[in-house]
Model the fold of this input.
Amino acid sequence: MNEGSVITSIKDRIATITFSHPASNSFPSALLNRLIENIERVGKDDNVSVIILQSEGDKAFCAGASFDELLAISNLEEGKKFFSGFANLINAMRKCPKLILGRVQGRAVGGGVGIIAATDYCFATEKADIKLSELTIGIGPFVIEPAVKRKIGLAATSKLTLDATDWHTAYWAKDKGLFSRVFENNREMDEYVHLLTQKLSTYNPDALQEMKKAFWEGTDHWDELLLERAEISGTLALSDFTKEALQKLKR
Done:
């Protein structure tokens, strides 16, 4: 089975990181770790000024964490490790000294919404609906909640979390601040992202790095916070409610 890929290309001081997985661009732990490694490596590259983060294909942007790995959790240590994956990714994006621009061509669920929220500037097409469905299986979006709330505020985060079976449109997400612009199609989005990144790549890299620090001011405690949240989710994943809900989805 295709285990997915993470590919990074660099041109004109712009790094493009593209992830893919046959299961709607979801993330098994190994693939998640590869994405983190790519972000950290590019963040240290003096030949890079800005990063574009995107997924492959024309459909889903990201379906979140691996469903099969979630099903396999059998103890608290495994649960905490599983949910720490997205905690580590969000922290890697937060601490990366380079600006990260998101390109979202399709739907995002759960951890995929967390990735979007952790970008510094994000663009989407009309197909980029979002949903946080964690409560339907007995857990919650605890790990990604700080990143989502930072972008769209408490009221919108509450609605997104509690309306756990509902898709929210890309335009709703734009109105709340998750997306900066929404385009009719990939071509229009790519043209805009290309022009913007070309401009950004010519700016003083030191100024861009200082702006990145300013954007994330007040989040230094997230290393500990997100791991604490991972433990909460890991504990809930062991509950009878969650195990039964996951078995129903598996059938």
User: Anything to note?
Assistant: The chain has one domain: 5-200.
